[in-house]
Amino acid sequence: MSLFDSVLIFSVFTLILGLILGYAGVKFKLKDNPLVNQIDTILPQIQCGQCDYPGCRPYACAIASGEAKINQCPPGGQEVADALAELLGVETLELNAEHGETKPSHVVFVDEQACIGCTLCIQACPVDAFVGASKMMTQVIINECTGCDLCIPVCPVDCIYVKEITPNLITFVSDIIKVKH
Fold first, then answer.
1. Tens digits of per-residue pLDDT, 168-181?
2. What torsion, rounded to 10 degrees, do the Cα atoms 77, 78, 79, 80 define?
3. Which residues contact 132 (CB under 8 A, 6 or more apart)?
4. For residues 159 and 161, what is the distance between their CA atoms, to the nearest angstrom?
5. φ and ψ at 27, to 5 degrees?
6. What angle do CA 50, 102, 52 make, to 5 degrees?
7. How far is CA 119 from CA 106, 110, 124, 125, 135, in A?
8. Measuring CA to CA, which residue among 148, 178, 147 is closest to residue 165?
9. Per the annotation, where are the binding residues?
10. The pLDDT value given to residue 168
11. Assigned CATH class of 34-99
12. Which Gene Ontology molecular function entries are recorded, alphabetically (predicted)?
């Protein structure tokens, strides 16, 4: 058997497997649940996990399937619970304090003088809002930070601080766009 024959056989085999996988991908495609999409749009997209789910999308799936209540999102506060109740046509529930308390909108920042470059904050951040490398100073990408605070408890030198976001025209317009979608 020549090299050409081996390459030809391997190519045909790869083509057949590709066609089978392509067909399976079309045939067994999971359909999006529009209700999950609507619920997910209402949630604040902080990905903090305070609702006992790893992010907003899994929480939206749990609400849609009836596994979770609509009042488990402290970052969204009572406004989100009320909006979810309206969307689902159910009675509104008071925000469940067991999941945390509603805090003002904020982001975190790193004290550059105290940072040791351990990268634990980078690993803890669910939205990749940190830039840095091992043994190098870490910084926060402010526009990406959702204020979930998951980075604060893992910092061994307590160099991560909270900074409140003061509403301005940009955040006001961004909130309006979120509501319309």
1. 555 555 554 544 44
2. 70
3. 115, 117, 119, 121, 122, 138, 139
4. 6
5. -65, -40
6. 10
7. 21, 12, 9, 10, 8
8. 147
9. 48, 51, 56, 73, 115, 118, 121, 125, 145, 148, 151, 155
10. 59
11. mainly alpha
12. 4 iron, 4 sulfur cluster binding; electron transfer activity; metal ion binding
Would you state the structure tokens that stand for residue 89, as one six-digit string? 């046509």
Residues annotated as binding site for [4Fe-4S] cluster? Answer: 48, 51, 56, 73, 115, 118, 121, 125, 145, 148, 151, 155
Give the integer Cα–Cα distance in Å for 152 and 157: 10
CA 101 to chain centre: 19
Own/partner long-range contacts of 129-137 (Cβ < 8 Å, ≥24 apart): 137/110, 137/112
For residue range 71-96, list pLDDT tens digits in order.
999 999 999 999 999 999 999 999 99
Residue spans per domain, the chain:
1-29, 34-99, 106-176
CATH architecture of 106-176: 2-Layer Sandwich (3.30)
Residues 30-47: tens digit of each pLDDT: 777 899 999 999 999 989
Tokens coding 166: 């003061």
Q: Which residues of 68-104 are buried (b: 16+ CB within 10 A; e: fewer)?
A: bbbbbbbbbeeebbbbbeeebeeeeeebeeebbeeee
pTM listed for this prediction = 0.66
Statement: residue 164 has pLDDT above 60: yes
